[in-house]
Amino acid sequence: MDAAERAAQAARTSYGRLLALLAARTSDIAAAEDALADAFERALCRWPADGVPTNPDGWLLAVARNQLKDHWKSAAVRLTEPAEPVDRPGTTADPDAIEDRRLELLLVCAHPAIDPGIHTVLMLNTVLGCTAEQIGQALAVRTCTLASRLVRAKRRIKQTGIRFAIPDRSVLPARIDAVLAAVHGAYAIDWSTGPEERTGLAAEAQQLAEIVASLTGDPEAYGLAAGICLSRSGWPGRRDDSGRVVPLADQDPQLWDRHLIDRGRDLLATASRSGQLGPHQLDAAIQALHCVRVDDPSHQVDPDLLARLHRSRHELAPTLGSGAALAAATADSDGPGAGLDCLDATEDHLVESGVMDRTQVSRFQPGLVVRAHLLHRVDRTEEGLAVLERAIGLTTVSTERRHLGELHAAWRNGADSVGIGPRHRDSPLR
């Protein structure tokens, strides 16, 4: 692995951990981000000539800290920040010994002094390293809108001086839901990318979910960790040898990762012992139903049971993703007309209740794919083609664009629909 690849790997696997450490002292996330960006830039310049340090994370942390100290000693902040000794790059201990303060930073981002509407977005951007563009695509929100809200939120954290610490257990429940939503969102963003663009967020999301679960005992944290494991288990079967998308119903379950399935089942069993059912546990239960095919490849999931689970999940925490998944499951159990009616009803309800607006609905790509399939199946193919074209226009992953383009051509030529496509069953976009 050359120097540039090693720096890129550090950015994927260590960004959130390093940023949390840098921002912990001053609560100045923006300054910490600038310092870390400078450290990565220096790594790209120096590592090819000097060689990759034995401890890349420690080197990056030391350089970024020195950059911050230069900032603290500048004329603008000299009176308020004490001078500190300068770290020497590469002197930090073993990377595994570098303190992990990501959970504290997640909880800072979920502080009640910050607008609740930006909590999840702030965590995705700050701790998990997702760009405003990635988050906007996942949430069907314009990038410029998100970017301005992120700037205001980071300024708010600095101004209020919110402490980096695990809060008292009495206030944890009020913040845990936002933390889990961010971890889930990070997994969904990585899931929706192609193999060539994948960032490693999925593994990080699983790790964070398990950390939160072990620290809090929250059944929904266990449910989220279980769902991520079970969903990740099917990744090896999602593309064929040529890189084409393979819908879940057509995948070879023998390609799925048995270790992740077993881990997911154990985590789901732990969650279920609480007797407190939540949406993440239901997501995991839906994934677990499909994973039965690993034990019995001939197994067919009961469509009525699947529809009931999706309905319960949507009723607990309605979103565009859960509504689209419910519509697809309803189409399998009660027919495409019923599925289309369900999709209309769930989207209308989300808009009328103020959860989403019409612009977000019109930009939610998985929902458009489901709608296009259902229109085609009720013999409204011309409408379905128009909706599918809009979905293709919102698709950024080349392999999925090819899949949807081939589907569009097949419908044009009079072919029957062959299922809802790659997303509706195994998608974590809820």
Task: Report on this structure.
By secondary structure, this protein is mainly alpha-helical. It folds into three domains: 3-97, no CATH class; 102-301, no CATH class; 319-412, Serine Threonine Protein Phosphatase 5, Tetratricopeptide repeat (Alpha Horseshoe), CATH 1.25.40. Helices cover 65% and strands 0% of the residues. The chain contains 19 helices and no strands. The protein has helices at residues 3-24, 29-50, 56-72, 102-109, 119-126, 132-139, 143-160, 172-191, 201-216, 219-233, 258-272, 279-295, 303-316, 320-334, 336-352, 358-363, 365-377, 381-393, 398-412. Helix 11 crosses helix 12 and helix 15 (336-352) runs antiparallel to helix 17 (365-377). The longest helix is centred in the N-terminal third of the chain and has 22 residues, at 3-24.
Topology (elements, then pairings):
Blueprint: H1 3-24, H2 29-50, H3 56-72, H4 102-109, H5 119-126, H6 132-139, H7 143-160, H8 172-191, H9 201-216, H10 219-233, H11 258-272, H12 279-295, H13 303-316, H14 320-334, H15 336-352, H16 358-363, H17 365-377, H18 381-393, H19 398-412
Helix pairs in contact: 1-2, 1-3, 2-3, 5-8, 6-7, 8-9, 8-10, 9-10, 10-11, 10-12, 11-12, 12-13, 13-14, 14-15, 14-17, 15-17, 17-18, 18-19
